[in-house]
Amino acid sequence: MITIQNALIAVGVGEDGAIDYQTATVQIQEDRIVAIQLDSANGNNQNGLESSSESGGEVVDGRDKLLLPGFVNAHTHSSELWQRGLVPPLPLELWIADLYDFTPLDPEQVYLSAIGTAVETLLSGGTSVVDHLVLIPGQERETVAAAVRGYREVGIRAFIGPLIQDQSLPAGIPTKGTEVQVADYLRATQATLELMADVVSAHHRPEEGISVLVAPTGIQLCSDELFQGCIELSNQHNLCRHAHLLETRAQQLLAQEKYGCSAVEHLERIGYLGERTSLAHCVWLSEADLEIMARTRSTVVHNPLSNLRLGSGIAPVLKYRALGVNVSFGCDGAASNDGQDMLEAIKIGSILHNITDPDYHNWITPFEAIQMASAGGAKGLGLADQMGSLSVGQKADLVLYDLNNLSLLPRTDPVGLLVLGRPTNVVHSAWVDGKQIVTAGSVQTSSVERLREELIRYSGYHKDRTVQGRPLVEARYREVMGLPLVHGYS
Amino acid sequence: MITIQNALIAVGVGEDGAIDYQTATVQIQEDRIVAIQLDSANGNNQNGLESSSESGGEVVDGRDKLLLPGFVNAHTHSSELWQRGLVPPLPLELWIADLYDFTPLDPEQVYLSAIGTAVETLLSGGTSVVDHLVLIPGQERETVAAAVRGYREVGIRAFIGPLIQDQSLPAGIPTKGTEVQVADYLRATQATLELMADVVSAHHRPEEGISVLVAPTGIQLCSDELFQGCIELSNQHNLCRHAHLLETRAQQLLAQEKYGCSAVEHLERIGYLGERTSLAHCVWLSEADLEIMARTRSTVVHNPLSNLRLGSGIAPVLKYRALGVNVSFGCDGAASNDGQDMLEAIKIGSILHNITDPDYHNWITPFEAIQMASAGGAKGLGLADQMGSLSVGQKADLVLYDLNNLSLLPRTDPVGLLVLGRPTNVVHSAWVDGKQIVTAGSVQTSSVERLREELIRYSGYHKDRTVQGRPLVEARYREVMGLPLVHGYS
Question: Where do runs of H (alpha helix) occur along B134-214?
Answer without folding.
Answer: 140-154, 189-203
